[in-house]
Amino acid sequence: MEDTPKLIGLDYATASLEIIEILLEDTSESAVFEEVAAANLHRPEILRLILENPDTPEVVRAYVEERMSLPTTASLGMVKVEKTRETAEKRGESLTSKIQKLTISARIQLALKGGREIRGILARDTNKEVMLSVLENGKITESEIETIARSRQTLEEALRRIARNREWMRKYAIALALVTNPKTPAGIAVTYVSDLKTKDLVILERNKNLAEAVRIAAKKLLHARKPK
After folding, report:
1. Which domain holds residue 166?
2. Is there a single domain that holds both residue 58 and residue 110?
3. Are 166 and 214 found together in one domain?
4. 118 and 63 within one domain
5. 74 and 172 share a domain?
6. Are residues 11 and 90 in the same domain?
7. What is the rounded distance in angstroms from the CA atom of residue 163 to the CA atom of residue 184?
8. Do 103 and 182 belong together in one domain?
């Protein structure tokens, strides 16, 4: 894609405490915990964050404890103390509100590396570069792409980006979602009308929220498919 912007990668060794906290809160993947721990042996605050997280895999917890010279019982005690000290406001703070407080650059980094919940939040971000970065996340699933393609909150440039991805557009559900989204440019939607099933064309032709060109294309195709 020649117009794809150059995106900023996420270096766990230099990422802020806030970004890493959100990533670990969102994931259950052992590999993420392992990578964060290995990259942050020089940052006690990150290692403490790993120990405090109840979802940290035991193998990673043991690895961190060893590097911090903490016996298991001591580290578990520390976790309990730190958790008790947390304010009610912080405990009640949602993942969404935490993300909204981040800079655009930080949200882009999260979009590129975050898990499913993070991607779902940032796919609705009003900043174009943040939303487009979600589409560059290597773990994004086809069902997520379908949801983004269907959403009227999705920015036009994101819809164009989806339409240019041939692999995604081979999936019927994604093509249907894109065509039936009123925000999809008519020139793009019309291109995929011929790929739709007759039953969906019937619905499409009656959908007054869609561009007239899309409805006309559906009507012509329905007429052409009628038995002679």
Report:
1. 142-228
2. yes
3. yes
4. yes
5. no
6. yes
7. 9
8. no
Task: Measure the CA–CA gap between 46 and 216, rounded to whole angstroms.
Answer: 58
Q: Are residues 117 and 37 in the same domain?
A: yes
d(CA 168, CA 187): 18
CB of 213 closer than 8 Å to CB of 188: no
For the stretch 174-199, pLDDT in tens is 999 999 999 999 999 999 999 999 99
User: Can you point out the beta strands (E) in the chain?
Assistant: none
Residues 146, 110: one domain?
no
Q: What pLDDT does 66 receive? A: 86
User: Could you give phi then psi for residue 88, rounded to 5 degrees?
Assistant: -60, -35
Beta-carbon contacts of residue 105 (< 8 Å; ≥ 6 apart): 8
User: Residues of the chain whose pLDDT is less than 50?
Assistant: 1-8, 72-81, 83-89, 91-92
Say what the alpha-carbon torsion angle 182, 111, 133, 191 is, to the nearest 10 degrees. -30
Percent of the chain with pLDDT over 70: 85
C-beta separation of 50 from 25 below 8 A: no
Token couple for 39: 């990259």
Q: What's the predicted TM-score (pTM) here?
A: 0.76
Nearest-angstrom CA–CA distance, 83 and 108: 29
Number of domains observed in the structure of the chain: 2
Furthest CA-CA distance within the chain: 81
Residue 52's CB: how many other CB atoms inside 10 A?
Answer: 18
Single residue among 84, 117, 140 that ends a domain in this structure: 140
The amino acid sitting at 195 is D
